[in-house]
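== Polypeptide entry ==
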Amino acid sequence: MNFQKITKSQCVKLLSVLVLAIVSTIHLQAADFTWTGAADANWSNPENWDGTENDYPRNTDKAIFAGDAGTFTQPFADSGIQSLTRVVFDVQSGGWTFGGTNELRLRGGSSFAGGVTTVNGPWRFDERTNFSIADGSVLLLNGNFNNAQRMNVRTGGTMVVSQDATQSTVDQEGLRIFDGSTALLNINLVSNRTISQSDYWVEHEGSTLGGTGGITFSETSRGLTIANGGRLSPGGNGTYGAQIGTFDVATNNTAVTFASGASLLIDLGATAGDNDRVTVTASGSEGGYLDLTAGGAVLELFGSVNQAVGDYTIATFNNPDNVAYGTFGTYLFNGDPLDSEFGFVSYYDESIVFTVIPEPGTLLLLGVGGLLLLKRRRL
């Protein structure tokens, strides 16, 4: 009897000790940590953080980066990190550069402001993530990209995803661009998931998808939608990627769809044939076309008033069945209505071409009038 009582008492005490030991090693609540870099560059060193615990941010914590980044040691995601998952990044100033061998995982609610933030190490967004990049700020993602969840880019800044030397494609569930934000993809995203078409979506006035990479849809009836106010702009912006480039989209039994009020932006180079281009192909047995049937989409061309005479292919469809359905409703050149004496747009079975006319009055001599000549050679 006495032995049994002692055993029970010991068990209770032992369990209490074990519970306390376990609790001491687990974050029970998310905590805020501010980077100081006081000891070294390693993320996992608690001495580099001013926080509520003698620890480092992980598992839903918030990592705050503020002040003049040039006066701080830049953070490095070292191999000593344990469970660096779903950290909220609160970057309040520009100039921060994140390197490392361990993967940085960004949680929804992360924000970037004050200039350019650069990530040179491996990274991912750990969940279907809404994150904000302040207007005028840039999130430059150069490291290996291992992402599976949808990214929602908001609040008017620019995200640039550049290809790591070891990486050519990324399996990506979705990308939505809102609030006048810009996403420049210089890598090919591959959607191998059963998702709604709206998971690749560009909407709100001035929201822009561009770059020199592309998107491949493996699932049937999945494609890219440019909604009212949204813009597809192949090529970079001159700072992050060459101004002129090609953006590739491969769809499976569906299209790149332009809603009324959506725009395709094309920069024209110094010589005929040198220009931005969007290519649409079929990743399956069907599809891969440009859908303009909603009417009211805008083609915005940018070039010189002394633009070289000749043809500029602005869109191609590499499958014999890939045709442009419908036409653009408005044509602009450097923001003004396109003058029929300057150039015209032609719709062919496998391409859309803008042609600069040799000299004013040529169309009148040919007996063709109107504000714009649309030469449709597709039946």
About this structure: Helices lie at 2-24, 362-365.
